[in-house]
Structure formats: C-alpha cells, structure tokens
Amino acid sequence: MPALEAAPMADLFAQYGGIALFLVAGAAVLAYFVFIVAAFLGSLTSRLDVGMKLVWAVFIICAPFLGALCWFLIGRRSAAATAR
Hints:
It is a single chain. By secondary structure, this protein is an all-alpha fold. The chain has a domain at 34-84. It is 85% helix and 0% strand. It contains 3 helices and no strands. The radius of gyration is 22 Å and the shape is rod-shaped. It comes from Nocardiopsis suaedae. Keywords: Cell membrane, Membrane, Transmembrane, Transmembrane helix. Pfam families: PLDc_N (PF13396). This is PLD nuclease N-terminal domain-containing protein. It is found in: Cell membrane.
C-alpha cells in the first residue's frame, strides 16, 4: 500500500487558505464598521439632549472602537436613565 502523501493537503491549503483568510478578514472588517455605525446612529437617535449627543458622536468619530464600546457599555444606560 502506498503511503498517504502530505503534499496534496499542503497544495490544497495553499490554494484555498488565502481565500479563507481573505473572507475571515473581510468579515471582521465589516463587523467593525457595522459596530461603529450602529454606535454612531444609536447615539444620535437616543433620548439624550443635543449636547450629549454631540459629545458621544465626536467621541465615536475620534476614537472609533473605544468610543463605540463606551457607548454600548455606558452611554445607552445613561440614555435609558434619562428617558425615565
């Protein structure tokens, strides 16, 4: 019986590995942009006063990931508390 060769598997990974990496990276970048846009639109449509909306919007624009993360962790709660 001939031994199984590792070369066909390496060729397969070389052929499709780049495509898979491209698709995963593209999905991560798309998720990043959706996260930031959702935070930006959420801050603008919240029930906060105009000044706080502007502060959150500028923070999300200047520090996109950190600003969006802070909005979802802190800002939405303060907006919900203001609405009561």
